[in-house]
């Protein structure tokens, strides 16, 4: 299969994922928008006013980048894990496996699907955030690049989960017991400078801390971690996760008998 | 050149089940080939390996001369597969399913749309192109899978029990479609439980049991192994005591059912004449088991039917 044909196969898969996101917009786009509005009403307006400022910003403004990233993480991950696992369990994944698509194309296509949903949800929740608080977007390029890197990382994470999952429990375990705790402890609602030294060191092991802070740096210009370190972490994560996905598909791990 | 050539193919699953035990098989280009056998014989494992959905344990597979190990993309391009179980996204539109499959084979959007239209029209699904797959009937879903398998114009079409659970009318229209497709040059491999289906369509046959090929050759030659058929006969009047029927093995199952074994060397006319001479008039008859089951029993000399072979049914030619 030529490179051009691989591109056709990739664009077919991306289009399919794009229409899937749109077709079930009530499940994919609407819930995060409602969640975001609730977070702003409860944590921003009701509790935030009592907290005051954090790192020189209104609490509402301070948590906005983290909340946007939280929505992107959850939705990019959820999109790919549910799309891939349902195609595996319903066996229409075989449509791709019997075709001469490269495994890298299958990975790229699903990653792009996750990015599509991440971008759609991210833009929607950013609009909601702007209804509650102004956001200065201090470094627009950093904002956009971190946005895309974050969606890529968690799309690939979702794909690994989808490949490994044997049943619906396996699909929900990682988001509930790993992703959500790491997100809440990843500096979405607070600066880690408020924590004791040991807790700060432990927090630095949390990859989501780097994503959230890099995005906050792009929007507000403040971060708990060096921005270069955050980029390095993100780029290496994308490369490592992409390689892992391709390797798993090459080996037919839990896909081919 | 062979459409499919399989040499010493083995498959042992992780649970230790040996599904294929050194199978050798050749299918000529342009042939219409039947792969017969009971459930668990290894048919689906063989198809899974050829279509690269199952990893082989050993042996060699070639499709139109292309090695599965070294020229996988060429092999994939040459094959269209219709699996036994439904594997379409039921929530997707009929046209999307076929167009996307074409895209996965690298056909441009314009070409994919054109090919999808041809295939959906051929399979009489064009009017349902905007419906979701879940709204289709069982027979339509099977036809959708055939349309999807043909969209990239494969030279070899593999169908794993395409007519299982499909009513007789749809089955006949599918048979005609497959005959036309084969006449157009597409090589076809068909697995089925129904010998009648294989007899109607296929020129060559291989019978698989427990991972081994136990018989192969031209259909007519293999059918000569069917040495005897058992029929269930319905008398016009109730028969309370069976009279002697010289030359035939006839049993009385009940007042309204007789069972007669008809050797290949004798004709049904002779049986009817013997029964008539004994004062029994027959109004209808049917096979006790399907002919594949009987052939299978003949070949394996098993005492009981193999699992998964279909019982008597109305299959007309």
H-E string of chain A: HHHEEHHHHHHHH
What integer is the average pLDDT of chain B?
88
Structural class computed from helices and strand pairing of chain A: mainly alpha
Poorly predicted residue ranges of chain B:
305-317
Q: How many strand elements of chain B?
A: 14
Alpha carbon gap, first and last residue of chain A = 24 Å
- With helices defined by DSSP (H or I, 4 residues minimum), what is the helix count of chain B? 10
Strand content of chain B: 25-35%
Radius of gyration of chain A: 19 Å
From the spread of the alpha carbons, the general shape of chain B counts as: globular
How would you characterize the largest beta sheet of chain A? 2 strands, antiparallel
- The percentage of residues in β strands of chain A lies in under 5%
Please explain how this structure is put together.
Chain A contains 11 helices and 2 strands; from the N terminus they run αααββαααααααα. With 257 residues, chain A is mostly helical. A two-stranded antiparallel sheet of chain A has the order 1-2. Chain A is elongated, with a radius of gyration of 19 Å. By secondary structure, chain B is of the alpha/beta class. In chain B, 32% of the residues lie in helices and 28% in strands. Chain B has helices spanning 43-50, 72-78, 94-104, 109-122, 138-150, 168-183, 195-201, 219-223, 268-277, 291-300; strands at residues 2-12, 18-28, 32-36, 58-63, 66-67, 79-82, 156-160, 187-192, 204-209, 212-218, 228-235, 249-254, 257-263, 282-287. The longest helix of chain B is centred in the middle third of the chain and has 16 residues, at 168-183. Mean pLDDT of chain B is 88; it is low at 305-317. Chain A binds chain B through residues 1-2, 4-6, 8-9, 11-13, 15-16, 19, 23, 87, 90-92, 94-101, 252, 256-257, and chain B through 13-14, 48, 51-55, 72-73, 76-77, 79, 81, 83, 85-92, 96-97, 100-101, 103-109, 112, 148, 152.
């Amino acid at each position: 299969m030529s490179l051009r044909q691989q591109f056709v196969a990739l664009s077919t898969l991306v289009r399919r994922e794009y229409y899937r996101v749109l077709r079930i917009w009530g499940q994919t786009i609407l819930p995060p928008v409602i969640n975001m509005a609730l977070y702003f009403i409860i944590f921003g307006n009701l509790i935030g006013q009592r907290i005051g400022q954090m790192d020189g910003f209104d609490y509402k403004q301070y948590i906005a980048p983290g909340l946007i990233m939280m929505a992107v993480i959850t939705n990019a991950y959820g999109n790919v894990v549910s799309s891939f696992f349902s195609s595996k369990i319903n066996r229409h994944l075989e449509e791709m496996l019997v075709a001469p698509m490269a495994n890298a194309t299958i990975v790229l296509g699903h990653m792009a699907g996750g990015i599509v949903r991440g971008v759609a949800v991210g833009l929607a929740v950013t609009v909601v955030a702007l209804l509650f608080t102004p956001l200065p977007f201090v470094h627009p390029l950093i904002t956009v690049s971190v946005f895309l890197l974050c969606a890529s990382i968690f799309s690939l994470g979702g794909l690994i989960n989808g490949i490994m999952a044997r049943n619906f429990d396996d699909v929900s375990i990682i988001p509930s017991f790993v992703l959500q705790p790491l997100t809440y402890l990843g500096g979405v609602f607070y600066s880690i400078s408020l924590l004791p030294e040991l807790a700060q060191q432990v927090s630095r092991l949390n990859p989501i801390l780097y994503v959230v802070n890099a995005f906050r740096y792009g929007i507000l210009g403040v971060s708990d971690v060096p921005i270069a370190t955050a980029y390095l972490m993100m780029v290496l994560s994308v490369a490592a996760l992409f390689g892992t996905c391709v390797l798993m598909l090459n080996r037919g791990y839990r896909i081919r008998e | 050149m062979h459409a499919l050539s399989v040499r010493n193919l083995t498959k042992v699953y992780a649970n230790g089940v040996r599904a294929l035990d050194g199978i050798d098989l050749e299918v000529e280009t342009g042939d219409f080939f039947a792969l017969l056998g009971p459930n668990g014989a290894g048919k689906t494992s063989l198809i899974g390996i050829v279509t690269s959905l199952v990893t082989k344990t050993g042996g060699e597979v070639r499709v139109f001369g292309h090695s599965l190990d070294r020229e996988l993309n060429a092999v994939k391009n040459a094959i269209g597969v219709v699996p036994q179980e439904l594997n379409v996204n039921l929530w997707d539109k009929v046209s999307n399913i076929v167009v996307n499959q074409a895209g996965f084979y690298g056909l441009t959007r314009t070409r994919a749309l054109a090919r999808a239209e041809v295939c959906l029209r051929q399979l009489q699904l064009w009017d349902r192109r905007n419906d979701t797959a879940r709204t289709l009937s069982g027979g339509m879903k099977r036809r959708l899978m055939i349309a999807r398998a043909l969209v990239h114009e494969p030279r070899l079409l593999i169908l794993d029990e395409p007519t299982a659970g499909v009513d007789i009318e749809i089955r006949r229209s599918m048979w005609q479609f497959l005959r036309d497709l084969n006449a157009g040059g597409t090589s076809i491999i068909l697995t089925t439980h129904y010998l009648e289906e294989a007899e109607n369509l296929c020129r060559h046959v291989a019978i698989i049991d427990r991972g081994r090929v136990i018989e192969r050759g031209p259909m007519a030659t293999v059918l000569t192994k069917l040495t005897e058929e058992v029929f269930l006969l319905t008398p016009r009047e109730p028969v309370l005591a069976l009279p002697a029927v010289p030359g035939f093995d006839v049993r009385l199952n009940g007042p309204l059912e007789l069972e007669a074994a008809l050797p290949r060397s004798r004709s049904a006319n002779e049986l009817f004449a013997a029964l008539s001479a004994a004062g029994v008039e027959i109004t209808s008859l049917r096979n006790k088991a399907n002919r594949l089951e009987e052939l299978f029993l003949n070949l394996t000399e098993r005492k009981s039917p193999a699992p998964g072979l279909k019982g008597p049914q109305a299959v007309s030619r």
